[in-house]
Design goal:
The complex is a heterodimer of chains A (about 100) and B (about 150). Chain A has about 100 residues and is an alpha/beta fold. In chain A, about 40% of the residues lie in helices and about 20% in strands. Chain B is of the alpha/beta class and about 150 residues long. Classes of the chains: A alpha/beta (about 100), B alpha/beta (about 150). Chain B: It comes from Mesorhizobium loti R88b.
């Protein structure tokens, strides 16, 4: 990897579900041998922060004006479809 | 089968088999418990109800009784806590990821969170419970606090 990528974790408050998702993704990527920088924000703050990150993992809908890739993070809360989302995140980190 | 969630749930903030028929009703019942126990300010219940309308918290688990995790901004919280309610009949919450989709919800975990770094473990315990179908089945049939303790350790 040429440099550390930055993932922006977003949810409604920027404090509850984004924290749970951030920890789940960090642990899972560590197992896959990948590290990254993590930021957290409210969904409403994402348009202002998107330029400075590589991609976004969010549990709530993100404004269509954001051009960075947005990966849905609900699977980390429900457990359903988690492996597929982890593969997506790994692919983004390895880009 | 221990998730440690019982250590974080105030026994006085557990409501089993509620008759509530709307998401607002169960949120207000549980928020009232958290307020009476000193976890949240009197502004908390309104703030959660209002937020639920625009930023919903229903989690689709592909079962008849899904889960919701209502919460709101930290300024309404005095100290971290979690209230839990099970419903006699599911009430409707919107899907967190797709607010147009309505989900029948049988379990509500109301979160009072004000420090993400300190409360990671609490959130992880809630998520572990949500992701454990046996735990949810056990909670659905729980009638007493001891039943809940047997499920959540």
């Amino acid at each position: 990897m040429s440099r550390h990528k930055t993932i922006l974790f977003a949810c409604g408050t920027g404090i509850a579900t984004s924290t749970a998702v951030n920890v789940a993704v960090t642990e899972a990527m560590k197992k896959r041998g990948l590290t990254f920088n993590a930021q957290q924000a409210k969904a409403t703050e994402v348009p202002g922060l998107a330029d400075s990150v590589d991609f976004i993992v969010s549990t709530t809908p993100i404004s269509a004006s954001v051009t960075k890739p947005v990966i849905k993070g609900l699977a980390f809360l429900t457990g359903i479809g988690k492996d597929k989302v982890l593969d997506e995140i790994e692919a983004q980190l390895r880009k | 089968m221990s998730h440690g969630l019982m250590q974080l749930l105030d026994p006085e903030a557990i409501v089993l088999g509620s008759d509530a028929s709307t998401n607002e009703e169960i949120i207000r019942i549980l928020a009232g418990r958290l307020e009476a126990l000193g976890y949240v300010k009197s502004s908390y219940a309104d703030a959660v109800v209002r937020r639920e309308m625009t930023i919903p918290t229903g989690l689709p688990l592909e079962r008849a009784d899904n889960v919701a995790v209502p919460h709101t901004d930290p300024e309404h919280v005095l100290k971290p806590g979690i209230a839990m309610g099970t419903l006699k009949r599911p009430v409707i919450f919107a899907n967190m990821e797709d607010p147009d989709e309505k989900l029948p919800v049988g379990f509500v975990f109301l979160l009072a969170i004000n420090d993400k770094d300190k409360q990671i473990e609490a959130l992880q315990s809630v998520m572990a419970t949500i992701q454990n179908p046996e735990a949810l089945d056990g909670l659905r049939s729980a009638r007493t606090l001891d039943d809940v303790r047997a499920v959540l350790g």
